[in-house]
Write a structure and sequence with these properties.
With 337 residues, this protein is α/β, with parallel strands linked by helices. It contains twelve helices and eight strands. The protein has two domains: 170 residues, 3-Layer(aba) Sandwich (Rossmann fold), CATH 3.40.50; 137 residues, 3-Layer(aba) Sandwich (Rossmann fold). The strands form two sheets. A four-stranded parallel sheet has the order 2-1-3-4, sandwiched between helices. The longest helix has 27 residues. It is globular and about 65 Å long. It starts with a strand and ends with a helix. The relative contact order is 0.14. Belongs to the ferrochelatase family. GO terms for molecular function: ferrochelatase activity; metal ion binding. It is found in: Cytoplasm. It holds the Pfam family Ferrochelatase.
Length: 337
């Protein structure tokens, strides 16, 4: 008889609404995470609670209003759809749940529901393709903090990343093939940025900026290096899409200061326009669902930046959202856990 198995899908989270109070609540919880802003506790409290949140909430609210739909946050909408579709694929031998690292549905409430159900096996699947301490690490840490208090602890399997899974890659390829790739002058694979110091913590014996992972991926040393896996994802996708090396750039967006991973996506977009590129196609492989960073930052802000500097057409390849191949990818990750 199959084991009674629960699958917990996890994503970063979203404000309840684009209203200032809800955005403030989300930013407060998110930015106070020690893995997100990894500086001493007191400095983080002062920076977040007295400077960032009070001054940023109102402006962030305006940006979230550009993202919001009549149904709500795309991240939540697609999260619920994926949960339902995956449940239909896995059928009665599995029970699929969804929680967010920050805000609702909260990990505490969803994991309490799972605890009461007493599964024999629990599969934890954060929906971040690439491991990073501030996303996957934080999510798994929170999960373990909650589960360690349970009287009955089931068999637990963690899916820590899936950046090189064929199902994940093929879903992006399928999304891209709706466009005529021959019409684009250049391609950008844009990933969420991270402070360089966070990457260095993964391999403290060597400096991130001295690594050659942008040229070659070594699983034995680079498996948990965010920068390395982003470059490897881009190489794998370029190969599947027959994009030559000289026609694409790997870049990092959403930076807060100059000490983040380079090159910066907005600068690459500007440079491509100034250098004569008229048509630019951008991929966002770090995000499995439409969100602020894809729909607004790339789809609106970068498009305006590209045109301002002489470009004509910037196209964003849509996120995986509820694509059938993405559901099959998740099913395979679950079955093989």
């Amino acid at each position: 008889m199959p084991k009674k198995t629960t699958v917990l899908l996890l994503n970063l989270g979203t404000p309840k609404s684009p209203n200032v109070s809800d955005v403030r609540s989300y930013l407060f919880e998110f930015l106070n995470d020690r893995r997100v802003i990894d500086i001493p506790w007191l400095l983080r409290k002062i920076l977040v609670n007295l400077i960032i949140v009070p001054f940023r909430a109102k402006e962030s609210s305006k940006i979230y209003k550009k993202l919001w739909t009549k149904q709500g946050s795309p991240l939540m909408i697609y999260g619920e759809k994926v949960k339902e579709l995956l449940q239909a694929e896995l059928q009665e031998n599995f029970k699929v749940e969804l929680a967010m690292r920050y805000q609702q549905p909260s990990m505490n409430k969803v994991l309490e529901k799972i605890r009461k159900d007493i599964p024999e096996k629990l599969i934890i699947l954060p929906m971040y393709p690439h491991y990073a301490s501030s996303t996957t690490g934080s999510t798994l840490e929170k999960t373990m903090e909650i589960i360690k208090t349970w009287e009955v602890i089931p068999e637990i399997k963690f899916v820590k990343q899936f950046f090189d899974h064929d199902g994940f890659l093929n879903t992006i390829v399928d999304k891209a093939q709706k466009y005529d790739l021959n019409k684009f002058d250049h391609f950008v694979f844009s990933y969420h940025g991270l402070p360089v110091r966070q990457i260095n913590k993964v391999h403290p014996d060597r400096n991130c900026l001295d690594c050659k992972c942008h040229e070659q991926y070594d699983r034995s040393t680079d498996y948990f290096c965010y920068r390395a896996t982003c470059f490897e994802t881009s190489r794998l996708l370029a190969k599947k899409l027959n994009i030559p090396k000289e026609k694409y750039t790997v870049a990092f967006q959403s930076r807060l200061n100059k000490n983040w991973l380079e090159p910066f996506s907005d600068k690459i977009v500007t440079e491509q326009a100034k250098n004569g590129s008229k048509n630019l196609l951008i991929f966002s492989p770090a995000f499995v669902a439409d969100c602020l960073e894809t729909t607004v930052e790339i789809g609106i802000e970068y498009r305006e930046l590209f045109k301002k500097n002489g470009g004509e057409k910037l196209v964003l390849v849509e996120s995986l959202n509820d694509h059938p191949k993405w559901i099959q990818c998740l099913k395979d990750l679950v079955i093989n856990s």
